[in-house]
Amino acid sequence: MQEEESILLRFINARIDETGGPEDVDINELVEHAISLADELAPTHIRAVRESAASRVKWRRRTGYTVRRKINRDWKDTYEGPRGRCHELERSEHRMSDQTFTSVPHQVVRWSIDTGAFFADFRARYEAAVPVLDTKRMERLRADRADWDTVLRAAAENAPHGFMRFWSTDVGGTMQLAGDAGDCSSYLMGNHAIAERMYRHDPAVMLYAPLRAAIHRDELGITRFSIDQPSTRFSSFDTPEITAVGEELDRKVIHLLQVLDVPVPDTLFAGPVNQ
Fold it and tell me: Could you tell me which residue ranges the DUF302 domain spans (predicted)?
């Protein structure tokens, strides 16, 4: 079902690109036409299709996007419908727009929090609370073309506190080779199940997902956990659905710190902390 939804969204995006301008797009008509090509879609998938189409048109209207030319290379997407029938959707690929560059200034807030612990101790507890991504399981899910509900269950099992580690490095160990003092470990932590809820609106969110974090000792020897406040990154996309997920990630980071017994300042609380 997830693959079918993805194909429909590509079809919708292609049809949007073929219009003379964003003001010419009738979202309801476009979505209904796309959905009629499928055997069936669950209500949640229909909602996702509608949200993605509306988000695309909103972006075009905000940026003044218009189609300039189209390269004559067509291709077809083929997928298996819920009842076993194959469908094909055609589109033209690689369209050029008049807007070849955009610059979006935005302010980012960096959190740097005293963990109240020794470096090695806090790093060990953090890495236990934020497990490494189970890449072998992810590879099996991709190979099996698992449905999205199965992916969600796997992510929940892999990330008991909402996050998993996609990458890490011992920066301090490397810098000590140059004679620099101090300890520092850097991480990319996130959750693809959460990221997908932003990705469906704008794949560019992956510039900031997973979240980059660092555990380090400052000039006073205090062990700190530093991370950019997620909502201040994701709000730059000016899409309410993405902003809402960014605010949810704020709360999840705070919850993780509480799990790690970090004294979280009251100033970080913008709302209730939910797991």
Answer: 170-230
